[in-house]
Amino acid sequence: MLDKTNKQFGRKPDSVVVHGYEGCDPLTGAVSYPIYQTTTYRNPGLGSDIRFSYSRCDNPTRLELENTVALLEGGTAGFAFASGLAAVAATFSLLKSGDHVVISDDIYGGAYRQMEEIWKPLGVLFTPVDVGDTAAVRAAVCADTRMIYLESPTNPMMKVADIAEIAKISRDCGAILAVDNTFLTPYFQKPIALGADLVIHSGTKFLAGHHDTTAGFVVVNDEKLEERMRLILRTEGSGLSPFDSWLVMRGIKTLALRMKRHEENAVKVADFLKTHKAVEKVYFVGDPDHPSYEVTKKQTTGFGGMISFTLKDESKVEKALCGGDMIMFAESLGGTATLITYPQTQTHASIPAEVRQKIGITSKLIRLSVGIEDAEDIIADLEKMLS
Ligand SMILES: Cc1ncc(COP(=O)(O)O)c(C=O)c1O
Prior knowledge:
Layout: H1 13-19, H2 60-73, E1 77-81, H3 84-92, E2 100-104, H4 109-119, E3 125-129, H5 134-140, E4 145-151, H6 163-173, E5 176-180, H7 185-188, E6 198-202, E7 216-220, H8 223-236, H9 242-252, H10 255-274, E8 279-283, H11 293-299, E9 306-311, H12 317-322, E10 328-329, E11 339-341, H13 353-359, E12 365-369, H14 375-386
Parallel strand pairs: 2-3, 2-4, 4-5, 5-6, 10-11
Antiparallel strand pairs: 1-7, 6-7, 8-9, 9-12, 11-12
Helix pairs in contact: 2-9, 3-4
The structure holds pyridoxal-5'-phosphate.
Pyridoxal-5'-phosphate (PLP) binds at residues 83-85, 108, 110-111, 151, 155, 180, 182, 202, 204, 214, 216, 347.
């Protein structure tokens, strides 16, 4: 539980990202928060009440990161996991056999695989819906619904859920609203303020931001969820290591600068793609023609750096993916470098072809994570790749 008297509370996000939760190490004053590379802690005496006992359960470096992310998301507690998928697994671990989940029909392929291969066989029931359609979400709820799970924007089709409206639905049916906030980060979107109960992150992406570590987060806003999530992290042993916690913390210090630059570049790149003769359709939440543009304007403070697009001609796909000098054909997103990804064979390969086709993940769909390089260089490379 965050201490509400903490001095960071009144500060602006641009300052919070730089200073984190404690500001510096309270013990030594170290401005770069130390990496407590230890598994265990000396116990001063039998029966003494010590804060840290074993690093699988708690570690000061991880705690500083968890508190920082919770503070940014406006929750009461944060939990740092070894990957985004470990955070997704911890979220579904809140459920039991027979529980029903209304889930976005467009989600990261790894989360889809987890649903199919881990949670369905254990008896959790799922109804996939287009979360851009609030009425469809309401219609999918039943007496056993315990969770509504969504990404917004969705990966890779960039659908936008009206989080505040869906929060009303989850409140009405007593379900947990879990929102994966990976694409926009708390810098641009705060799902808890919009009514979500739980926020998930692949910290591997924009939060860490430098293509150098995998991490995941769950942030909650309720004491009972906090207690349960702490038990899950400690018992499943999926917490983030001290060194990786430090790397993510270092990444977060520049989150504000990076997110502004990602967005600034993405707006220019989306404009370029929209008028390019090889491009069929552009999916970008900052495009005024996006069907949920108004919802995005209402619930976020920025558009982020993620764009998907389709090509008119499938035979141009290979060059579009691999023909860049600077832009790299690689999985993942949210780092400093612009990455181009082919969802069909990479991030969403584990989704059956017919399901992919229905969602729009076709052989002509390409996803772009716009980096923080010079926009002119990104566009020049894309021009070459699309020629
Ligand atoms: C939206 C989203 N959520 C979760 C994940 C899983 O994160 P990780 O790769 O850190 O396990 C990803 C990975 O790409 C993602 O895009």
